Amino acid sequence: MIARIKPKIIMHNIYPFVLFLFITLGKLQSQNRNVSSLFKNSDFEFLEGLTKDVLESSRIYPGQFISKTYGSNNTGGTLIRPGGRLSYPAFWIRDYAMSLECGFISAKEQKHMLMLTASTQCNQTWITKNDGLIPYGTIADHIRIDNGLPIYYPGTYDYEEQGRGGTPPYDDQFYFIHMTYYYVKTTSDKKILSEIINEMSLIDRLEVAFKVPPSNLENQIVRTTENFRGCDFGFRDMIIITGDLCFPSILKFRAANELAVLFEMINNKDKANLYKQIAQTLRKAITEVFYKDGMLLASTGLSNQPDVWGTAFAVYLNVLDQEHTIFVCKKLANEYHKGTLAYKGNIRHISTSADYNDSTAWEKTLGSVKKNVYQNGAYWGTPAGWVVYAIAKVDFNAAQKIVSEFIDDLRENDYRKGDNYGAPYECIFPPNYFGNQVYLTTVSCPYAVFKSFYRDH
Q1: According to DSSP H, which parts of 59-154 are helical?
Q2: Would you list the domain boundaries of the chain?
Q3: 188, 177, 194, 168: which is closest to 114 by C-alpha?
Q4: For 383, which DSSP code?
Q5: What is the CATH topology of the domain spanning 2-456?
Q6: Is this model's pTM higher than 0.90 or not?
Q7: pLDDT tens across 91-128, in order?
Q8: What b-and-e string marks burial along 3-22, b requiring 16 or more CB atoms within 10 Å of the CB?
Q9: Three-state DSSP class for 138?
Q10: DSSP secondary structure code for residue 193 in this structure
Q11: Which of 386, 393, 346, 403 is nearest to 44 (CA)?
Q12: Of 84, 409, 410, 439, which has the most beta carbons under 10 Å away?
């Protein structure tokens, strides 16, 4: 009897051990490397310098005149727009918050943009003249530089005409929390959390913002409906994505953890524990709701396709457990090797193998966004760092190749060469589609991730 049972016990016990080795070896493949081995020659220094220059060209100094249409910066401090040249002449909360971790934005600049954002938070639920609903606590999508008015919906600069049905995007609320967390973390100025802006403290404003995006009460996952929709993530506001939403749920996970830290800093243990619990609930639910065949789906409703950006971002933020992390990293590496994921180091929202059909990448879009244009299939530099970070865990050589292709393209088309050059572009698609020129997150986001290799590897 013992002889017959023993092999079963061995097999039962050896599987977790083999799985542990598989996961550990996969992690070690990247952890034993560093950023110097990820880059060739002086590529890291090149990216660092380019990021600094693009950021400088994106600054709008106090009183600086942009154009007759958009006026001068009258907000009383420096603003950072999404890029240089003619790129988006306003202060975009999302793009700015995504660029913070590059480390090149001063504390003074951060504080001005943080307080401006807080001061324009919606203080009363209202319905726009075009039947858009702006809930109490909503954070602006972007803010005008001339009069400081908040524009809560993408696609317009007109305060009166904004909002054609539905609600504003769901991500800006969580980016507002990230702005505050990053400022407090890098300056140790925790007193700012009790500072009163328009009769409400900053920490209270963070909590109000956190509660704006509609969510499932049981698992905290952000969700929307087609009839009354909010955009899941501003980098795909032209795409109709419904049901449970992956990317803003990942942002909510990070925001919950950041709120927990902020409440710990002001000795509010009950609130800190509350947000820790929310983060734990989301961490479990994100995998349960969205994981399928090695990727996270963008949603459970319309456009419920494998989400490259969301999957890689989840790896970067350590949302997934070790087992699922290795699975998705290997899936991303496989897609890269198949040629369905990247072009010159730039990354698609979804791989070409996951396109909805021959006419569109995503299942449903707003207006007439053609396939392989802008958010409907073009390649973007913004998520390149997240994807490299993920692939490096299982295939460091592939990660090196993506970085090399990314930097080579930036060198070739570097806007500093003259007016006929425009890199970093917002997005590209061969042979001759190019989005906005001198686009900040195309370099600031990857640079911030590549810096993290110093920390994690």
Answers
A1: 93-99, 107-119
A2: 2-456
A3: 177
A4: T
A5: Glycosyltransferase (1.50.10)
A6: yes
A7: 999 999 999 999 999 999 999 999 999 999 999 999 99
A8: eeeeeeeeeeeeeeeeeeee
A9: coil
A10: G
A11: 403
A12: 439
